């Protein structure tokens, strides 16, 4: 099933069969989800970052955890495949179930789903750009997406990153970003460098090749550690649900400065 656009040809192997396997949770097998032993001490909370202005202003037609394929499309997104996975944990290492994990990122051309987050070179119509996953009893989440790339929008250049938000009980409890450990652009990235050094370590993930993975596929493990008050009710019960985007005044500020059109 070739696409008329040769850029897409190398991804033709991600056909419907492959997607079905992915959705059944077979793509990664067991070892990546091996449960860790007891934690001897409290974990370091994952650092909060700004949300940024590009949380989708209109949701894509598909919001599942496979960002490579929109609904039952045949042509997958352009980009190097990445399995982003991990666990949502309390500071004591307890899994947080029923947490909604959302991610959003630019496509291979540097464009967000957000209608005002588009690179002039265009938009990959096959990239979902946004996805959601609900953690199970082990706190695990999984996305299939692409390795993030750098981008420049509104004169701001960013190192590669995937935005990630966690909600519980209908409330956003963590807004952060996943950056690529070792990427040279990290040294000049304003968001990363704006964090204290110990916090920086909590937003970096290795995008390496998993053992036995198909060529061109990478796997990034990113465990999310929530603060104590972030997810427990007064009765100590952990709850799930998705909160609203916390938004920013970014667009108002930009408009006031007359900078709200691209380039
Ligand atoms: Fe971003």
Automatic annotation (TrEMBL):
Q: Which UniProt keywords apply?
A: Dioxygenase, Oxidoreductase
Q: Which residues form the Intradiol ring-cleavage dioxygenases domain?
A: 84-112
Could you tell me which Gene3D superfamilies the record lists for this protein? Aromatic compound dioxygenase (2.60.130.10)
Which ranges form a coiled coil? none
Indicate whether Oxidoreductase appears among the record's keywords.
Answer: yes
Q: GO molecular function terms here?
A: ferric iron binding; protocatechuate 3,4-dioxygenase activity
Q: Which InterPro entries would you find in this protein's record?
A: 3_4-PCD (IPR039387), Intradiol_dOase_C (IPR000627), Intradiol_dOase_core (IPR015889), Intradiol_RC_Dioxygenase (IPR050770), TAT_signal (IPR006311)
Q: State the family named in the UniProt similarity comment for this chain.
A: Belongs to the intradiol ring-cleavage dioxygenase family.
Instruction: Return the protein name.
Output: Protocatechuate 3,4-dioxygenase subunit beta
Gene, per the UniProt record: pcxB
